[in-house]
Amino acid sequence: MFTNIKKINSLAIGLLCAGSLYFTQCSSVSEEKEQSANGLHEYYSGYFPIGVAVSPRALEDSAQSALILREFNSMTPENVMKAGPIHPSPNQYNWGPADAVSYYAKENDLKLRGHALVWHQQYPGWFFKDENGDQISKDTLYARMKSHITEVVNRYKDVIYAWDVVNEAVSDNSDFVYRQESPYYQIAGEEYLAKAFEFAHAADPQAKLFYNDYNAARPEKVDRIYTLVKKLKDAGVPIHGVGIQGHWSIFEPSEKDLRYAIDKYASLGLDVQITELDVSIYPWEKERRAMKPGESDEFTNELEEKQLKQYDMFFRVFRDYKETLTGVTFWNISDQYTWLDTYPVEGRKNYPLLFDQELKPKKAYYKVTSFDQ
Ligand code: GLA
């Protein structure tokens, strides 16, 4: 097994040096640590693929690349396929970074999830405006969605097996199902969701199409996500799965709530994936704020223990649902870099992943990999 991993690594790195123009430096296998014969994805080979959100820069880094190839068998581009980065102006697509990720996935035989076609954030400024800066009509919106979705899905259909088609369409306000402030919703109402799935399905009839959201294991929000997805399903819209993002913490969700969520989505006959897993050491907050005086960001033994228990419970539940879950993807590689270092509190270090700042497995890693297979 280990020889195989080494072989794949050398092949990958050879290709990085020779291949894509996007990569600026060659990586070296020599720094690779001969750490363990088994990666996460091998422990979980009888269960589900184990994925990770990546940037092209991380793939260029030999240590991170070695870790990815050892531990994971699936990837999601963290940012580079979002509408803002990939389609910055009406007639310009920025394919380079997304090509680099898809090339790496193909060459190393990793599964690839596409993320995300329709989202109310990280979209290009021009997308909802006409040449006078006024809001576009519904017909123009659909024409733009169709062209964007068709181009992007088509380009990667040889490698991407599943897409997050619509991201985070459910409101943070429990009085509403749909996010009222989304420009898609303001222009087209709830119908835009069906259109997005139809365009994606037409572009790649083989791709598994997901609705993806956060706080998707809080029972009250589970029920609203369920309402939205059921409506699409009942209307015959080509939707195949629900993505539970999994930006969780040592405080939530409880085992009961997690099981409730998975059961509820699965009851619609859809695939369920955990698409963006990290376990913050802080309670969930949404609004950006500065660090408070005296606020600590130390990863104490006590916090590490709580995180380990939470990870242990999550993976025990995931294993119980191996017939339902078709993927578990971590949001970032290691505690060396996580989006949670800057969000929602700029400069407050977080430690949400299974690998530490030196890319070494944390105690939680050993916990989630010790079970009877
Ligand atoms: C959401 C999005 C992701 C990413 C994270 C933060 O969950 O779906 O694409 O932006 O927020 O990194």
Automatic annotation (TrEMBL):
It catalyses: Endohydrolysis of (1->4)-beta-D-xylosidic linkages in xylans. InterPro entries: GH, GH10, GH10_AS, GH10_dom. Gene3D superfamilies: Glycosidases. Keywords: Carbohydrate metabolism, Glycosidase, Hydrolase, Polysaccharide degradation. It is an enzyme of class 3 (hydrolase). The keyword Metal-binding does not apply. Residues 34-371 form the GH10 domain. The keyword Hydrolase applies. The active site is at 276 (nucleophile). Its EC number is 3.2.1.8. It comes from the Bacteria. SUPFAM superfamilies: (Trans)glycosidases. Belongs to the glycosyl hydrolase 10 (cellulase F) family. This is Beta-xylanase. It comes from Marivirga lumbricoides.
